[in-house]
Design goal:
This protein is an alpha+beta fold. It contains 3 helices and 2 strands, in the order αααββ. The radius of gyration is 10 Å and the shape is globular. The mean pLDDT is about 95.
Length: about 60
Amino acid sequence: MNLSMAPELLISILNTKLRNNYASLYDLCEDLDVHLTDLEAILLQHHYHYDEQQNQIKKGLK
């Protein structure tokens, strides 16, 4: 998966995949061969975080 796309587009795609196909961000990363730490760094850089309870990436810091 290309992580260098516009952050809003990336978040939209990831949230759709999380909602429809994956129980967690970890599962998504494992399946798509994405390093979780790389994705988390991108999320943090653009002021997003992963909400485990809702299995969703959200705007704003924890």
